[in-house]
Amino acid sequence: MSRFLACVADLLKLTHYLKSGSGIPCRETWYTCAVTLSIEIPEATLRALGPSPSEAEGKVRLAAAMKLHELGNLSAGAAADLAGIPKVEFLHKLADFGVEAFRTTAEQFDLDQDTLRRSLG
Q: What is the pTM of this model?
C-alpha cells in the first residue's frame, strides 16, 4: 500500500472512531503523514541563516524543535523528528541552545537524593 493510501486509510479509521464515540484502539498502528508548512522569510534573513536554502531550513527546523521542546510542546523524540536528526544528537544539542535536558525542581531533586540515599543504605 502506498504511503498516501495508508495515510488516507488512517484518517478514515480515525474519523470512524471519533464519530462512533468508541475511542481509538490502543493496539492500532498509526502512520504519521508529513505535512508541509511554508513560511515567508526575508531574503536577508535567509542569507544570514546559511549559504543555501536547505541549510537555512535545517537551522530553522532545529531552532523550532528546540523551542517547542523547551516549552513542553514536544517530547525530545518528537522534537528530534521535527529537526530531522536522531534523538541522541538532539539531546546533545540541547546545551548549545541553553535548554536543560532534565526539568527537575529543587524539591524534586532533594526528594530523589533522599530516596537514593535510603536505597543505598
A: 0.61
